[in-house]
Amino acid sequence: MPNAVARSSALLLWTLIPAFFPTFPRLAAQDVAVGNPVWLGDYPAPASLSVFKDGIDPAYPPEMKGSGSIGYATVERFITRDGHWLDLSTQATLAPFQEATQEGDSLHPGVWDSAIWIWELGPKVIEAFPLQSYVWIPVIFNPASASIGNADATPRLLAVSPIIVRLRHLETAVVHVRVSLDSLGNVLQVTQPTPAAYKVYLPYIERNLHRWKFAPARKQGHSAPAEIDLPVLLQPLSAGAYFDHLPKVLRFGAVKYPESMARSGVRGDVLISCIVDEQGHALDPFVFGSNNPAFNENAIRATLGTRFRPGVLKGRAVNTEIILPISFHIDPADQGVYAISAGGDFSDPKNRGAKLGNALAPVYPFALLRDGVSGGAMAMMLVNTEGRVIALKSLDATRPEFEKALEAALEGFTYSPAMVDGEPALAKVRDEVDFRPEDISNPEILAALDLEKKHPSSIHAPRELDRPLALISQSQALYPLSQLKAAKAGNAVVEFLVNEKGNVCLPRVVTASTEDFGYSAVQAVSAWIFEPPSVGGKPCVVRIRQSIDFKPPDASLFDP
C-alpha cells in the first residue's frame, strides 16, 4: 500500500510567527501596498525574514479605477537553500487584483508565462538562513474612497495575515463577510459570510480578522465607526511548508501540438494536477484548468511521460500532489481563446466581458452520431462574480439531445468575471455548437464508430483482458445545475469503448435517475484515460459499463 499523498491541506501543525504586519509608507488613494513576507512553517522562523532585492510595484488595475472595492492578493513562495523560488501560487479576492500582481517569468519560457512570476531574494537572506523557507506575501489594493486626504473616507486596509484552513476541495475560496469597525479601526464583529456554505469557517475568520489592521473611516475629518463588505481568502496550507525538497522536473514528456489544431495555430494552456510518486513518476493526472479542450489529452500524455525528482519529506521520498502547467503554441504570439459576454468587450478594461478560463468539448450523443444525424444547439450561461456558471438557459436546439449535451459541457466552463464600471458583475455568455458527423476529424472516434457499426463482435469484454483495466486519468462528474432545487442524490450507468491507446470513445447513457445525470456522466467519462488494454499481448478495444453516483453540493455555492 503506497504511503499517503502529501497534499496542500496536509494535517501537519503550522506556526505563524508574529511581527508579520508590514510597515507601509504614507499612501495616496487608489493604491497598491506590498507587505513584507510572512513566515509559514512547522519550525522556527529565521532571525530576519526575506527582503526583496528587486521589489515589485504592481499597478492598480485600470478597470478598477473609481471602484469602491477593498481587496488583496497573496503570493505564496517556497524558497530553496540556494534562493530559488518554487511552489509558485498567487490568489486574489478579485481577478483584476490577481492579474495586476502577476509578472512574466523569463526563466520558464513556454510554461504558461502568464501565470508564473519571479521576485528575487537579496543575498543576505541566504547567508543568514541557509535553509528552505516558506513565505506568504500580501499585496493590498485600497479604493479611491479610502483616500487619506479626504475629510470623508471609508476604512483603509493596512495589513492582513493568512487565513489558512482545511478546505473541503483543497482550493482557495473567496468569502465575503460584513465587518464592523470602531473609530480606531479595530474589528468589533464579523457576520454574514457569503456563500453561506462557508459559514462553518466564520469563527476562524473572525479570530484571524482581529489581527488585521485598518485605518478607520472618517466623517468630516474625524475618525468614525463603520461597516464594510470585506472579501477574504480561505486558503489551504501548501505542503511546501514542510518539504525538504519539492518535486523537480528532470525530463519533460513530449509536448505534441494536436494535429487537429495545427491549422488554427492558437495557443493552448493547460494545468494538469497529478501525483508524483516516490520513484518520480506522474500518477492520476487530470485537467485542473484548460482554455481549450483540444489540448487536454496531449497535456495528460506529456505529464505521464515527464520524470521528476520526487518530493522529500523528513529525509524520505513521498507521494506529492502538484500542478504542472503545460503550454502549446506554434505562433509565438499569444492568442488566447475568449468568450464575450453581452454588453461588454475587452477594449475597455472597466467594462469587459467574462473571459473564458476553462472549457469542455460537448460530447456528440452516441445514437445521433451512429445514425448520422446533424444538428446544433445554443445556450446562454449566467456567470457570477466569481466566474462560476450558476444558471443555463437553452436558446435553440434542433434536437433535445444536442441541447442536453451542450448544457453538460457548459456547466464545466469557468471564467474570469465580467467587469462593469470597474466592479465584478454578473454576465450572460452565449455559446453555440454545431454537431455534424462530417466535421469529426479525430481518427480514434471514427475508427471506434466504424468498429461499433461493422464489427461489434470484435470488441472485447473486460473479463477477456490480460489484466484488469487501470484508470490513469479521471475527471469528476458535475452535479447538474437543473437538479440543484431538488437536491437529491442520483446515479447514472454509462457505456463506452476504451481503444488501443486507452482513450474513451463513444460514451452513451444506459440508465440514469434523470437524463441530466446521464449527460453529466457521459461528459465526465469522455475525458478519462486508461492503461492500454490488451488480449493475448495484443492491443484491443474493450467495452466498459460504469456506474457513477451524484451527491448534491451546497446550493449556496451557486448564488449570484
Task: Describe this entry's structure for a reader.
The chain has 4 domains: 15-239, TonB (TolA/TonB C-terminal domain, 2-Layer Sandwich), CATH 3.30.2420.10; 243-328, TolA/TonB C-terminal domain (2-Layer Sandwich); 355-439, 2-Layer Sandwich (Fusion Protein Consisting Of Minor Coat Protein, Glycine Rich Linker, Tola, And A His Tag, Chain: A, Domain 2); 443-558, TonB (TolA/TonB C-terminal domain, 2-Layer Sandwich), CATH 3.30.2420. A hairpin with a 2-residue loop joins strand 11 (217-219) and strand 12 (222-224). It has 8 helices and 34 strands. Helix 6 (400-410) crosses helix 8 (515-525). It has 560 residues and is mainly β. Strands 1, 2, 3, 4, 5 and 6 form a 6-stranded antiparallel β-sheet that branches. Strands 9-8-13 form a 3-stranded antiparallel β-sheet, covered by helices on one side. The chain has a 3-stranded antiparallel β-sheet with strand order 16-15-20, with helices on one face. The two termini are 44 Å apart.
